[in-house]
Structures
1.
Amino acid sequence: MSDEAETDAATAMVDENGGAGERERSTIGFPYMNLADAMEMAKALHENVGVGECSEDQLAAWMNLSPRSSGFRVRTATTKMFGLLESPSPGQFTLSPLGRAAVDPTRSAKAKVEAFLSVPLYRLVYDNYKGGVVPPPAAVERDIKSWGVAAKQTARARQALERSAEEAGFFANGRNRLVIPAVANYKGAEVVVGDLVPVKPLGEMVALPPDVDPIIRGLIARLPPSGSIWPSNERELWLNILKSSFQLVYKDSESTAN
């Protein structure tokens, strides 16, 4: 599968039947599967190689999937989007620092909170619904459509979001409220995870003006260190998400101003 196709899988930019026909593309990043699916892949990798690397064929076999199947590609793209999986070189996989924390029983709860909030759509949903009651499913789907999810994907995106929120503990107080678990603190644009992984306040890695949107700050904060390995498909995904974020937070002109 090409880099472009894997990017499409990671951001759920597929048609309703998963086919190759005409597609309405989403303009915000979200995984096609949910956090529990990503955790399953992270655990499979941890149980077989620990902190080491594995090949594409090995990981697919541990998941009982074909390495050439769309199911395997979507699963790996999903796990990467949650920040649990890295590809140090083409065809090779290893757990990220966040992924290693997620499979550690003493750190898993915090890690899953961070993984959930690292997804652009999920972060936007949380920021808009926190402190209030989550609307009925139809209203949620209208909201996420307005935030960039393709019309044919709103139901599937909502379902994956809800399952991911459940896995990360956001529904511990009832499914009508998104409440961040007590194991993690959330302060505006900052996820405080203690000694989980070296996460900095969003935007701290570079000097950004204070009024830059938290979504943009979050993407900048996720840039890998200069000189490190960053596969081209992951760079393309990052750029696509950044482009989508610009469409969300900036206007084309002043024509809509009062």
2.
Amino acid sequence: MNTHHLTAALDLADRRVPVLPLRAGKVPFGNCPACKDNACGGRPNMKTPGPCDCPQPCHAWAAATTDPATITGPAWAPLWKQAGAVAYHPGGTGLTVVDLDHAAAVAWARRELPATRTVSTTRGEHWIYRGAMPSVNAVRDGVDIKSTMVYARWLGPGTGTMTTLPETVRALIVKEPSPVRPLTVAVPTGGGECRHRTPAYLERGIAMAEQRITEAASAVHATVYRTFLAVLSAHGRCGCLTDAHAARLFAAAQTKGETARHCTDAWSNARTALGM
């Protein structure tokens, strides 16, 4: 067992920093057989884990934990033998990492950003601020924002005093909204008895589903999956649900920041869960 990585993970967990092991190549361990191809519905939010209760660290950042019993338990113990590094979920402990990938990016940060705690990386630096925000890659050349719903590699405590997340960093992710991508999705053709006495019944159900997604303040992944599951359960077996209805739900999810791939996976997983 790699006691160095395990000791570091337990030390971080003791300080309420959620951690997980990384394998060689600085990537998470692959999904376990029960979760392969996201068949479990995913584990999109570590605080609101959704339908998956898998104890293994196979859902990347969402598996990060501060529970020492899990970290040293039977599901994780074999993985520490293979671990190449320790990762943590910055947003889970209220932090944001500005990942500067090369010397030019570091020079830009020194000119434009307030000083804070810094950690040297193999190619640049991590600048760590107190405060969480959405994570976005490539906000400019060589600059990634790592906070919520991502992991960052633990490279040591760093140097300097950690300061509050500045507006200059938050502003890096502000941009004009992208147009919603049109999608083709599989809609059940039905065959069962229609329970929709009027078209208004289905319309009201779709409108309520759109509203549920739009109003999600957190756990958007889980909300999208559960909403798709509810819509398909109520309207997916009689043939009334159309591509246009599904497109409305996908558009609502993408407006909340979901990718087209996640929408497709969530829809497919919901259909599978319902035996469609």
